Amino acid sequence: xxxxxxxxxxxxxxxxxxxLGGKDxxxxxxxxxxxxxxxxxxxxxxxxxxxxxxxxxxxxxAEAGIRQFLxxxxxxxxxxxxxxxxxxxxxDCRVVYVDNDPLVLAYARAMMxxxxxxxxxxxxxxxxxxxxxxxxxDLTDILxxxxxxxxxxxxxLHFVEADVNAILATFLDALAPGSYLVICTITADxxxxxxxxxxxxxxxxxxxxxxxxxDEVTAWFKGLxxxxxGIVPPHRWGLADTxxxxxxxxxxxxCYCGVARKP
Length: 263
Known about the structure:
By secondary structure, the protein is an alpha/beta fold. The chain is 41% helix and 14% strand.
């Protein structure tokens, strides 16, 4: 990676920022986003539900004793960010953010300020080259990989067309027992036509897009101890049983998530 992406073509992180109501995107991103919205009118809601899952899962890990976080596919900062959630629970948490968009780098350096007791940094990297991320000196200055780490890949892997199992194996092999894997990714299981149409928009615009099935997502957690309730849509993870959500909402979100611990 040379750290540069052309700004005259859309990028997934800036489109996601647009869906979340952010201002850090370009006209080319907004045009692509509008095409995606035609195919998947509820994708703004899906983006917000993804963020809410990030909040709950990060808080869960911090309450479970995790003090180190590696968040890949960070995206443009939207408060509260992962480090803010983690450090609210445990002020000494250390967080490394990773993204491959130089615009994200600019905003991250300006906005992602750590609490006094913790530490936060951002590195430029691509999830398809996990070895490069793991050996980056800015990562090893912040994280001690001999101690448990929370590895977060939220709203990222549906933009990865490479071998996800091999990518995850490289990360997990490098992480200590007691580490956690947190994933949320798009599926076509609930609304095949809608999600396929959205996927086509990304691909036509020369952006990678690959939705997965329940079985594929489940396989990513092989050998790990899944937390309850297992592989579910993100709005069904970490909420009280008294919160009743109609099954029709699953099609609006069209994602699976999971949180698992490395034994």
